[in-house]
Amino acid sequence: MSNTLPLFQQYTPYDTEIVKTATRYGLYLIGGTAIDLLCRYYSIPFWRNRSDNDLDFWTSFANKERGRFVKQVGGKFGISVEDSSDYMVSLELEKVKIETDILIDYDCANTKFASSINGICVMSPIYLFSSKFDRYINTANIQRKKTDFYDLRTLLSIIEKTNGFDELESHLSNRDYDQRAEDMLNDIITSML
Predict the structure, then answer these.
(1) Within 10 Å of residue 6's Cβ, how many Cβ atoms?
(2) What is the pLDDT of residues 141-165, one digit of tens each?
(3) What is the DSSP string of the chain?
(4) How far apart are CA 34 and CA 128, in angstroms?
(5) Going by fewer Cβ within 10 Å, which terminus of the chain is more open, N or C?
(6) Which domains does the chain have, with CATH numbers?
């Protein structure tokens, strides 16, 4: 990867700073920005722009540092906590108009998918594929389904480049998908041939 390129598509001058701050506090990038970061790192074309002013993160419920992240970015950018639950914190950074969601995961097994690319904490392509596939098979929104379909293809390209198909197959085989979901997965794979 060239040092002159940004790590991912930037919407504001603060995107990278916010992601690096999240990394310091044990929050891992997910969503379109994570796919963009992985595509740039592995030199795989990303078929779309990332969502406008949207940064999504994953963290384990055991991570007590997430509150420090909220305080840190809130002090600098001004935050209104729009929504908070045991599973999600949604923030809007008022001064820079960036939406930030923090997914709080209670499944300890998912920590094995935590990784780092160029010093940025990001969830692995296996995790990103699995979580996006779960949404893909359960959404009725046609536009979201189309976006997820192409994102899943992109993630498969990354997984192929990293020789991760065996790990993906092992992970997905433990997900207990029904025949409909398996057919949808096969359709995605077939579309790449």
Answers:
(1) 11
(2) 999 999 999 999 999 999 999 999 9
(3) --TTS-SS--SSTTHHHHHHHHHHTT-EEEHHHHHHHHHHHHT---SSPPPTTEEEEEEETT-TTHHHHHHHHHHHH-EEEEEE-SSEEEEEETTTTEEEEEEEE--GGGGGGEEEETTEEEE-HHHHHHHHHHHHHH---HHHHHHHHHHHHHHHHHHHHTT-HHHHHHHHHTS---HHHHHHHHHHHHHT-
(4) 8
(5) C
(6) 1-123 (3.30.460), 125-193 (no CATH)
At 1 the pLDDT is: 42
For residue 158, count CB atoms less than 10 angstroms from its CB and return exposed for 0-12, middle for 13-18, buried for 19 or more.
Answer: buried
For the chain, what's the residue count? 193
pLDDT score for 4? 59
Model confidence over 43-100: pLDDT tens digits?
Answer: 999 999 877 779 999 999 999 999 999 999 999 888 877 788 999 999 998 888 889 9
Spatial CA neighbour of 90 closest among 82, 61, 79, 52: 82
Alpha-carbon Rg of the chain, whole angstroms? 17
